[in-house]
Amino acid sequence: MKKTKLLLHACCAPCASAVLENLAGEYALTLLYFNPNIQPAGEYQKRLGEFQKLKNKFTFELLAPDYAPQPWLNELKDWAAEPEGGARCARCFVFRLDYAAALARDYAGFATTLSISPHKNPAQIEQAGQTAARNYGAVFLDFNFQKLYPRSLELSRELGLYRQKYCGCLYARNN
Q: Which CATH number fits domain 4-173: 3.40.50.300, 3.40.50.620, 3.10.50.40, 1.10.10.10?
């Protein structure tokens, strides 16, 4: 049986771990590591490198565009003072999911691992995904993965994944 192709925006390897485990039976997965919000560049590269550990356990293709934070910084500068979880985060979700939606034409749909975090607002993520889907004629699959968070902690320990202390955003790091 041929699996449905799904483009999965992945914020980091720990969050992707349980989501991969959950979706692997039904989907042929391509992970998209598009996170220009992550600062500094060394942190971005460290998180990107962790996906190699996932490849030892799961089958997926990994797309990782070159690190280019400046467009994100330009887009979000007016929201720098916003509190974590507010309008800045909502705009960041739109920015990243727009990119995913633009690439989703060759897939049955796209989704994101962002919703696994208990620190993120699933309604903001769903709205950003639906907006991006409309903007690019794509299909957003609104999976709320929060119930998988405990499993992501287990898999992170099992696989020795680096678990960061902040989302990656320079503004969140400074708060």
A: 3.40.50.620
Task: Give the torsion through C-alpha atoms of 161, 47, 123, 105, to 10 deg.
Answer: -110
**Residue 69 and residue 64: Cα distance in Å, rounded?**
13
How far separated are the first and last CA of the chain, in Å rounded? 49
Quote the DSSP letter at residue 109: E
Give the model's pLDDT for residue 165.
Answer: 79
DSSP per residue, 11-44: S-HHHHHHHHHHHTTTEEEEEE---TTB-SHHHH
Please state the pTM of the whole predicted model. Answer: 0.95
Cα 128 from Cα 145, distance rounded (Å): 16
Q: Which two tokens stand for residue 26?
A: 């039904």
pLDDT over threshold 80, residue 174: no
